[in-house]
Amino acid sequence: MTNTEPDGTSETLGGPTPDPSNPAAKDPADWVTGDEPMTASQRSYLDTLAREAGEEIDASITKAEASEHIDRLQKKTGRGA
Questions:
Q1: pTM exceeds 0.70 for this model
Q2: How many domains in the chain?
């Protein structure tokens, strides 16, 4: 998704790395809630990606760990491209 900013530049979501100018874009390792259990949405999507990739992942992982697995498996399966 791209939005045009007032200065004419565009904002892009879903880039390969977090936008350093956006305070809400953080590395999963830096998340305040990263140690909490993964969300139901993460669990569902990670289950789909893991099946497609032929992998098994421990279901008791944290939000941050789930995010990292999702990023990795999106690349492996081509879903994140």
A1: no
A2: 1
